[in-house]
Structures are given as C-alpha cells and as structure tokens.
C-alpha cells in the first residue's frame, strides 16, 4: 500500500515493505496468489478511512478467498492471517459447494461496489467465474462495521448481500467485476459484471442496478431488461467483458458511464468501448457504440497489442470537469522493443466520435481551449485564488485555501486543507446547467479535510436536487450566510453525494436563511453540539445533517 504524496520521487517497494511511505500486506498461505486482484474498497466499515480488498483466487485449493483490510494511518506490516482472524479487517471465504470440480476461483476479480443498497456504507463485489459449470457467479457483500468472517454461501442464501448468477454454462461471468457508479441516476450505485466467453466468445457485460434487498440476481433477467441491461459484444472471439470498469462521468451529463475492453478484437489490436449512462434497460450492442450511438469506441494501435486488456476511470486528469479514462495495451512494442506495453489516457468528451490510439500516441488527444487558469503557486501555504466572470479552472494546494468564483463555468479543485469555495448566483446557475462552455462543465471538488461551500449574495437558492450527482463533491459545510436570506434544498441522496467520505453535512448561516429537507430526515432527540440540531434518516444510518439553530428548517 503506497500512501499518496506530493513529490515525484520514485517509490521503491523495498521501502514500503520496511514501513516507509506505506505498508506491505503479506499473503496467508503458499500458492494462494494473493494480490491477483486488488482494489479500493471504499469505506466499508464507516470509520472515515478508505479500505482495501485483496483477492487470493488459489487459496483453499483453488476455491479462493478475499480479504478486506480496514484503513489505517500507521505503516506496520499486515499479515492476511491476522485479517482472517478478524484483526484489522475480515476474510471472505469461498462458497464451498459451488466450485466446478472443486475449483471456484473466487477473488480472481474483486472491486468496490460503491454503495449499492444506500445505507451509507460502501459495499464489495467478488467474482468467482468457475462456479455453476463455469457460468460464473459474483457476490455482492454489503458493508459492515464488524470484522466477522463472511462466507459466500451465506451471501448466496441472501444474508449480508446477494448473489449474481451467470446466464449460461462456460460464459465465465465474473471474469471481471466493478462498481459502475450510478449509471441510471437513481441514487444507488450500480455494478458491472463481465462474461467474456458468452455468445461464442464475443462476450457480454451486464449492468446490474443497485437495490436494497438481498434477492439473488440472475443475469438471464438482466439480459431480458429486468433490473439492469446487457452489453452485447461486437464480433465473435472479441471477448468483450474481459475487463470492465466504471468510467466516471465522461460526457458530463450527470450519469456515470462505463468502459468495457475487448482485447482480442481486430487480430488482438483490441478495442475499448465507452457506454454512456442511461436510465432505461434496453440492451446495448457494441456495434452501435462503434457507430457512435450511445457512446464511442477506442480503437487499438497495432495488431497484437491487446489494447483494452485493462481499462479504468482515470478521474479528472486535466481538470476540465469531465472524467478521463486509461486503457492498457500490455503487448505493445515501443521503438523496436517487443512487448514493453503502453497505457493511454483519453480525455473526457461530449461527442461520440471514435478515438484512435494512434492519434493519442502522436499527441493529438490534447486540445487547447481558451480557459483562464487560477493556480496555487505556493502549494503548502494558505492562498486566496480570485476568479472573474470568465470560465476558469481553479487548482489549489495543501494549505487552507480560499477559492472565489465570481461567476462563469468554473471548475474548482480545492485539494488538501480546510478550504472555502465561494460561489455567486451565476456559479449556481452553471452548476445546474448541463451545457458545456469552453469544453468545461461547472464542478466543485473540495478535496481532503473539511471544506466549505459558501454562498456570496442575497436571495440565492442552492437546490441540490436540481444539480446532477458528482457536480459537487467532498464538501462538509455549506455556509448560507451571504449578504441576505438564502435557501438550501437537499434530499438524502444529495447529502450522501456531496459528503461521500463522511456522510455528514453541516449547514451554517444566520436568521432568515432556510433549509428545505422534505420529509426524509427526522430531528434527533439529543443535541450533540451546542447551537446545532441534528437530523438522521432511517434509510442511511450513517448520514447526519447538522443545521445551525439560527436557520429555519422547512
């Protein structure tokens, strides 16, 4: 585990193993192959620290295991034998009865699932592609605060999560699994499951919509348009679904998008397909995506490269408010050297024109726009970045910074520190808009620590119910004070979206300001801090709304 850092010094894993700059996680048994698949797990236990999930698909004589390691601040080495004993995390044991010839390979693919059931704790997904005559099965494990063992047989029975059953023998569903983000915009995180050998190896990927119950999901139902939708491969032997991932919001429409890899397409040149988020359950055909309907295709560079072997969201690399992508091509040749491999970063975009990786290699993927940049030169000091009415990118550093928008389609990246982002009526309008300006989509990212979104002006209305998910994130305090009477409107999904790390939002202001919370929140009987009333929801036990007692709650 390598801790984040601000410098560009090389990291040596020998240093990590000795407890400098991170910590090592040691496997449990010989030939377990722990680490074959690893992922952030989100905050599974709700302690405010991100957790990890590690797959060991050869453990228990190829039945497999997975380990959830709780987040921590020290650098002491972790032994997975301790995790299996309930110290510092918990183990997810295989589904003993479900392996084909004693082989299940659970943990061959593991991932955070996001918050599938909306309880405020992040969930997990574990793939076991050799179960059920290799039709495969994936298991969704709901987040929990204890470190008790999880048995996948219990998940299959509908306790603590639910199973996702493969469609046909030898499809190998669960070869790749991932959170899909919120594809359909219902406030629950969705899932994507790859089955790269389905349909004569053209492959299928299945998007399973988030749900609060623990009834098993059958991928045959998903293929029929119940509870999600199927993504059908383009050509025989392309093996769509060998790699699947959340793409983030690539086109800025407020719905999370998907990326699926078909690394064997076009004589193993490989292709990747970006599928835009959608609210219906109609099947998606990758031949349509390749034609520019509902997404766009990313064509590989050379035969044998296997581009799309690994695909992922890259976050917002260039700071334009659109999420970017990364595509791996492990067998690409470079300057006459065989199989060195390449990775390509593709910037988010709103059109559906095909991307050719030959153009990315030639540097044609970078487009300059007339955008003003407000940057934090003194990265570790407290700075004030003041914008104009133009469209601007704000990038702050490690200090307790103040970012002042002054209107326009602004993108705020506050970084670490206890930052304050000040927006006016024009900024509010742009946050509600789905229209790009100078290829920017207005967005606020508070970054780490405790960050405040502050309104500047009077008679302003910050209506979070009308702002797409992901447009405002990592905000812990909303300040309505301004220069007059201002209003905040939000629901439970809005709280969980903008304060996803803590699930706690504090609202401050003065007399005359109002907070519209509808009927989903209930005022707590006990006051936990002087001057504030706290509100909770039975639909998300970890969610807390703190409202200044000077404000009117409606």
Automatic annotation (TrEMBL):
Q: Does the keyword Chloroplast apply?
A: no
- Identify the GO cellular component terms for this protein: integrin complex
One GO term (biological process): cell adhesion
Q: Which SMART domains match?
A: Int_alpha
Where is the secretion signal located? none
Q: Which Pfam families match?
A: FG-GAP (PF01839), HemolysinCabind (PF00353)
**Keywords tagged on the record:** Glycoprotein, Hydrolase, Repeat, Signal
Q: Does the keyword Magnesium apply?
A: no
A GO molecular function assigned to this protein is:
hydrolase activity
Protein name (database record): Flagellar hook-length control protein FliK
Q: Which organism is it from?
A: Bathymodiolus thermophilus thioautotrophic gill symbiont
Q: What is the lineage of its organism?
A: Bacteria, Pseudomonadati, Pseudomonadota, Gammaproteobacteria, sulfur-oxidizing symbionts
